[in-house]
Amino acid sequence: MRAQWLRREGARELVVVVTGWALGAAPFRHLGGDRDILVLSDWRALAPLSLPAGYAAADLVAWSFGVGAACRLPGPDPFRQRVAVCGSWLPCDDDLGIPRARVAATAAGLTEASLRQFARRAGAPLEGPADLTALRAELAAVMAWDAVVPPRFDRILLGASDRIFPLRNLLRAWNGRQDRTRILDCGHNPFAAMRDWDEVLA
What we know:
Elements: E1 2-7, E2 13-18, E3 36-41, E4 57-63, H1 65-70, E5 81-85, H2 100-108, H3 112-122, H4 132-143, E6 155-159, H5 167-173, E7 181-184, H6 197-201
Parallel strand pairs: 2-3, 2-4, 4-5, 5-6, 6-7
Antiparallel strand pairs: 1-3
Helix pairs in contact: 2-4
């Protein structure tokens, strides 16, 4: 698991972003605000989360495969608010996530060109050179995740035109939580239409 600070300026509050596969922190770099931002990625091995001291509050934003990762992070839940964005607590599943055959085919056929195609479908930029071997291993690790009881999420944001996770599967995954679910007029990356973290957490 990799931790990367997007902003660390001694803010009063912290946002921990549990991001998706292959895209890192790129989808969030443009978002403004007065919070410190810590981005977690790389799900080959999950590790307990140890937040730095001194913050009045910490919120969690989980996106894409990061939703499944956030459900499996070992240790206590330190967050005031948890937001799930365009992802499932069971991300590789024929009914509740991305169909398993599609994930397996992505891993088997992964190239620089197919990764660029994935990024276009996700509506997010790639960031830096890709380690294809590590990305294949990450997909294998995610496919091996067992089912879990999904923890509390205070808000669930889904994309009406998501080209990564079928919307019908995400609606099944979050069935029973309609009161906290919003379907946005966007694809897999709603952050592209947002300006700051207040919009994500509002």
